[in-house]
Amino acid sequence: AQRIPISLLELNTFGHAICALLIYLLWWEKPFEVDYPTMNKSQILWDFRARFWMEHSRSSVVESFDRDLRAHLKGQQWFQALSAREKRDSVRYPKVEIDLVESSHSYKTSEEYDSGQANANHETHSEQETAHDGDNEAGLISLAPGQIVPGTGWKLKDDYVKGYNESHPPLPNISLTTQDVTRWKMAERVLQYRWTFFLVSSRCEDWPDMDAFLKLPVVLGFSAAALIYGGLHALAWFAHFDSSLEQLLWRISACVVMGGVPVFFVLFNLFEQFGIGLFEEGLYGSWYLATSPLFGLVFFILSVYVLARAYLVVECFINLSNLPAGAYDVPTWSAYVPHIA
Questions:
Q1: In degrees to the nearest 10, what's the CA dihedral of 148, 152, 153, 157?
Q2: CA distances from 68 to 25, 54, 88, 332 (A)
Q3: Which H or E run contains 88?
Q4: Per residue in 160-207, pLDDT tens?
């Protein structure tokens, strides 16, 4: 080795390059430059397509009912008298179309599914030929919560508000187009058959739920990334700094980055094991921060971690103002690369 010092900025850049390389490897099988779709007009796939559409978070049916439900509750004095937490716990706002309905059909076998496909051709062709250019106002069907959707086995749910009964004003109706009814009828055929359940799942979110977040592979992955990133910066333990204070802060920051993530996972897992959660679940699956002193501890750890990461970046540029002379030397690459003189 030629003992040529390197700057902190070079070390930081190398750390980010390693992270970029790891991300590139993880995305190795990710589809790239998909230019042309592959059309498949199979009957069952069109039924699955309708089922997947019911998980679409931007459905006009859901958005319309959600808007009407919020406006309806806003005008109810008994609801406005509730606290913010009581409002959050007492109302289940639909997010996707499947949240609006429930099915009363019994399960069938794959043979029964195949025999029923001939009766479904008309609905499927109607759905395929629809251009999805917008709702047909003339074909709107307005149904009250609790009613059966005509021509299907779907029943509209009516349990959006806890404690809501006949003494309260009726909930707003749900408006459907003939296209929506046809699509729901197709989606219903998929849900009738138990053998298709493993093929259908809810829409994947960008961030996993808390249980998935604490699984061992996720914990080990995040902890390893923190150890690698922080460890690369710890290589500058004896590097040149303008002052001993900057050197001390660099060492502390490198240690915090290496150990902050594993410590956070350990504490969070201990809290879960003893039933002490940072988040509390509302009546209908909504999550909110718990009013617990433990939140202050976790917030402190995260704050220190963020400050440590920020210092590592800022110090890289501050260090450029007082680099040792050797940092500008050019290494003799011939000492490392085999060559013929």
A1: -40
A2: 47, 19, 17, 73
A3: helix 84-90
A4: 888 777 777 888 898 888 888 888 888 887 776 655 555 655 555 555
